[in-house]
Structure to design on (142 residues):
């Protein structure tokens, strides 16, 4: 979050593989205009709903219970990215981080895209990768 915090005020944010919603809710607290959360797991989605409601953030959030890759593939193609910032924290060992980066490189759906992944996983060129032990975060920018 500290890498992109200055880019958050007044922009729409996308939180893929949202889990509890921690990243998107943090983005709201730092001034994001709104957040689209995408989470497919039914139990985790219920936790996400509860967290958004308990923080009184529902009016600035849209929750999507669906597969993140399918969600991205439905984002309308345009000259301007739909989101100012997008985050993704996909499950490890499924090559999802690579798939997400490939999709972003083909058609940027956000001006800034940050994806968390295992440090041993190599993402496509063009991003700035920061390593934190066994975890890395790669940030792509338009």
């Amino acid at each position: 979050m500290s890498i992109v915090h200055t880019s958050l005020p007044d922009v729409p944010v996308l939180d893929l593989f949202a889990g509890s919603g921690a990243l998107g809710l943090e983005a709201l607290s730092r001034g994001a205009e709104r957040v689209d959360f995408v989470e497919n797991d039914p139990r985790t989605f219920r936790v996400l709903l509860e967290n958004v409601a308990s923080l009184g953030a529902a009016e600035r959030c849209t929750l999507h219970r669906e597969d993140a890759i399918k969600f991205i593939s439905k984002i309308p193609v345009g000259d301007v990215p739909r989101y100012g910032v997008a985050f993704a924290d996909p499950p490890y060992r499924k090559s999802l981080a690579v798939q997400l980066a490939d999709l972003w490189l083909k058609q940027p759906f956000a001006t800034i895209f940050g994806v968390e992944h295992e440090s041993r996983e190599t993402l496509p060129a063009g991003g700035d990768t920061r390593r934190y032990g066994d975890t890395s975060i790669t940030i792509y920018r338009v």
About this structure: The chain has a mean pLDDT of 94.
